[in-house]
Amino acid sequence: MVPTSSEFSDLKSGAHGDVVLLVTTTLARLGYLSAPSEGFDSVVEDAVKALQQDRGLVVTGVVDAMTMRSLEEARWKLGDRVLSYLPSKLMRGDDIATLQTRLSELGFHTGRVDGIYGPLTFEALKEFQKAVGAKVDGSCGPATVMALMRLVKTVSGGAPTQLREEAKRVSRGPALANKVVVLDPSSDELDRELAFDIAQRLEGRLIALGVTVFLTRSSAKNPSDADRIALANSANTDLVISLHADNYINEIAHGVATYYYGSEAHSVRSVVGERFAALVQREITARTDLLNCRTHAKSWDLLRLTKAPAVRIDLGYLSNPGDLKRLSDSTFRETLVESIMIAIQRLYLSSEDDAKTGTLRVSDLRRAGIRQN
Questions:
Q1: Contact 140, 100 (CB under 8 A)
Q2: What's the CATH fold of domain 172-367?
Q3: Cβ partners under 8 Å of residue 146, min gap 6
Q4: What is the C-alpha separation between 316 and 96, in angstroms, rounded?
């Protein structure tokens, strides 16, 4: 059993002991190591980095709480245990992601393939059990697993869930009026003021176009990540935008990057989130001289657990003198805000109504009648 986050401190190169042995045993079982070890050496560090890369985590080689949780989830294969809906402590694991994928392929709506046994997965499994004449209890035991295995896949890659996400985006129409956007400014000490200033500027622009906006924090209140996710999930949200600036030990690192939900381990990604991330990245790099550090699929909780498409934008490196100078300039911040605004609108435009990257302005949205008065 991999220890929980309450039972360990971060593990890094040079560590020894039983916890390292447990971690390396799991890494070996998953094929990242040839054999377990009680010592955390460079080989173990490389294995941890490979796991983090595959699981959409930050690649550090350090086993932190999120990496430990991913190790715990990765060790389960469908059929290893009975899966049940436990509202007080939701079950997590790759076996659940496999279950969600199979149910989705058969046309049962589990919500996002996230490896978490939530209420949608519970209801989808009961519908499947009813359809195949199995005991309808919402628990996935040997009989249910066998029924799933017997059925031939009709759709691959979790496409129905992705199509539902895309269909919802299209059905909401091109107008920004009546959309609901959650802005999540960083609360980290180094970038909290920058992120909150840009969030407030963006909030004002969006409200002027008829958007309902929620900020996950204020200048005085700093809710937990779980509270931020809960706010986004309770607001009938169309889009979640998390705003940050990056830091690195080497001041040479610079540029803008955008992240969306995706997991190679689960072979799934947010279609709308990926599209919006690409639009944001293209608009910012077309309108500024920030280096394009591209878009990336990650399985961070904010991206993974929000029901609506979510992206995180790292707007530059505060540890880089050039990026810091740009981000400290009010005019530059306004350019970032307009870039994000246009990306939001382009997300909801049909392909024939869309424009080239870097050409639209917020004033164009009003003249085109996209804002509903």
A1: no
A2: Aminopeptidase (3.40.630)
A3: none
A4: 36
Number of other CB atoms surrounding residue 363 within 10 Å: 8
Task: Please name which of 294, 336, 263 lies closest in space to residue 116, comparing C-alpha atoms.
Answer: 263
Average pLDDT over residues 116-133: 94
Region(s) of the chain under CATH 3.40.630.40:
172-367
Q: Which tens digits make up the pLDDT trace of 36-64? A: 999 999 999 999 999 998 888 888 999 99
Residue 365 token pair: 């949205």
Structure token pair of residue 320: 């880089």
In angstroms, rounded to a whole number, what is the distance separating the alpha carbons of residues 141 and 206?
A: 48
Sign of CA dihedral 236, 256, 327, 223: positive
CATH fold of 94-156: Muramoyl-pentapeptide Carboxypeptidase; domain 1 (1.10.101)
Whether 242 and 279 have beta carbons less than 8 Å apart is answered as no
Instruction: Specify which residues 256 forms β-bridges with.
Output: 292
Q: 3: closest CA among 20, 16, 91?
A: 20
What kind of architecture, by CATH, is found in domain 5-74?
Answer: Orthogonal Bundle (1.10)
Instruction: Characterize the bridge pairing of strands 256-263 and 268-269.
Output: antiparallel
List of residues 6+ apart from 222 with CB closer than 8 A? 187
Give the whole-angstrom CA distance, residue 269 versus residue 70: 17
What b/e readout covers 105-117, taking b as 16+ CB neighbours within 10 angstroms?
bbebebbbbbbbb
Nearest to 112 by CA among 126, 130, 124: 124
Is 108:128 a contact under the CB 8 Å cutoff? Answer: yes
The whole-angstrom separation of Cα 264 and Cα 212 is: 33
Type of residue found at 88? S
Question: Could you give the CA distance from residue 124 to residue 50 in angstroms, rounded to a whole number?
Answer: 33
What distance in Å separates the CA atoms of residue 38 and residue 240, rounded to the nearest whole number? 42
Contact call for residues 142 and 293 (beta carbons, < 8 A): no
Distance CA 347, CA 280 (A): 9
Give 281-312 pLDDT, tens digit per residue. 999 999 999 999 999 999 999 999 998 999 99
